[in-house]
Design a protein that fits this description.
Elements: E1 2-7, E2 12-19, E3 24-31, H1 33-36, H2 44-66, E4 75-81, H3 85-102, E5 106-110, H4 111-122, E6 130-135, E7 140-147, E8 150-156, H5 162-172, H6 179-186, H7 212-223, H8 231-263, E9 269-273, H9 280-292, E10 296-298, H10 302-305, H11 309-321
Helix pairs in contact: 2-3, 4-11, 5-6, 5-7, 5-8, 7-8, 8-9
Bound molecules: 5'-O-[(R)-(carboxyoxy)(hydroxy)phosphoryl]adenosine and zinc ion.
5'-O-[(R)-(carboxyoxy)(hydroxy)phosphoryl]adenosine binds at residues 10, 136-138, 163-164, 166-167, 178-181, 184, 274-276, 278-279, 306-307.
């Protein structure tokens, strides 16, 4: 089965063609960094317009690169939410139009499900159930992935998402946007022990996360330093921040493993997904933790951690294989929790 996937929920226009045999025939991502950079963050209106301008051309290129035509497809998938609604509408309308014209099944994929299933695209051995740490710009959650469409949220952030914390901390340090990768680079030769930053939630029961206090601590640390920040101060701050995040995530992940094993004693894999999963320090820390717990650590390649079309095409293929499809009157969803039964956490930065 061959599925085309469209991702437009944030600031990347992405289209990919993926087969159920785990072949990525094409995977194109157009970043809107240049458009949003001057504003220091994503401007929803600008994002929606840019998606609209780019998506048709990108879809044609993705098909050409795959050496395929619409007639060769078995389904067309688009992110149906959660995300910036203007962009989601662009992707969903595009996919519906293709589905209607070519008589194909349409799949509205939850963006989080795309991240959650990506590891199965690149790792054929990864069976259900597995424990997933989903860490992106809008979400930070531990999910028990029991099957396609079967997700149990074990913990979530009570305020900011971890990627959001990276972006805000990087902004405070004057590193620019997007903060995550820039902060990781700045931290490379920094002294991670120089600033004593808090490890939010460490030692607390459960596996909820919190990052707003850490961001505030970074602000206070910066206010105590001479301005403008020296290169060395910036490096050490970045390294100290990254270390605090990795440490907090490892503590929470240890508890999440225990909770997940209580539900599934035979649980064998810890999977990390989402943009922050591209961070090498965090990956290494989680890999150590998994090894210590006798679990496999599975992380998709860096290019499939940040938003892309392949994750949407793959989740579409997984759902199509189960005989699932969505009606053409599907309404895009700005909020769309993966586990609707999970209690709503009323923190500041909760996006779904
Ligand atoms: O999954 P993603 O591409 O988009 C969302 O669905 O949010 O994640 C983007 C987030 C941004 O906050 C970005 O700063 C963060 O992932 N990120 C990183 C790294 N690369 C991207 N954070 C830390 N270290 C990185 N190397
Ligand atoms: Zn994402």
């Amino acid at each position: 089965m061959t599925v085309l996937g469209i991702e437009t929920s944030c600031d990347e226009t992405a289209v990919a063609v993926v087969t159920s045999g785990r072949e990525i025939r094409s995977n194109l991502v157009l970043s809107q960094l240049a458009e949003h950079g001057p504003y220091g963050g994503v401007v929803p209106e600008i994002a929606a317009r840019a998606h609209l301008e780019q998506v048709d051309g990108l879809m044609a290129r993705a098909l050409a690169e795959a050496g395929l035509d619409f007639a060769d497809l078995d389904g067309v998938a688009a992110t149906g939410g959660p995300g910036l609604i203007g962009g989601v509408i662009v992707g969903v309308m595009t996919a519906k139009a293709v589905a209607a014209v070519h008589g194909l099944p349409f799949l509205a994929v939850n963006h989080l499900e795309g991240h959650a299933l990506t590891a199965r695209l690149t790792d054929p051995e990864l069976d259900f159930p597995y424990l997933l740490l989903l860490v992106s710009g809008g979400h930070s959650q531990f999910l028990l992935v029991e099957g396609v469409g079967r997700y149990r949220r074990l913990g979530t952030t009570i305020d900011d998402a971890v990627g959001e914390a990276f972006d805000k901390a990087a902004k405070l340090m004057g590193l620019g946007y997007p903060g995550g990768p820039l902060l990781e680079r700045a931290a490379e030769n920094g002294d991670s022990a120089r600033f004593a930053l808090p490890r939010p939630m460490k030692g607390r029961p459960g596996c909820n996360l919190s990052f707003s206090g850490l961001k505030t601590a970074v602000r206070f640390a910066i206010e105590a330093l001479p301005t403008p920040l020296s290169e060395a101060d910036r490096r050490d701050l970045a390294a100290s921040f990254q270390e605090a995040v990795a440490d907090a995530l490892a503590d929470r992940a240890r508890r999440a493993v225990a909770l997940a094993r209580a539900a599934h004693p035979g649980l064998r894999a810890l999977v990390v997904a989402g943009g922050v999963a591209a961070n090498r320090v965090i990956r290494a820390r989680l890999a150590d933790l998994a090894e210590g717990a006798g679990m496999r650590f599975v992380a998709p390649p860096l290019s499939l951690c940040t938003d892309n079309g392949a994750m949407i095409a793959w989740a579409g293929a997984e759902r199509l294989a189960m005989g699932l499809a969505d009606p053409l009157d599907f309404a895009p969803r700005p909020r769309w929790p993966l586990d609707p039964a999970a209690p709503r956490v009323t923190g500041a930065g909760i996006k779904a």
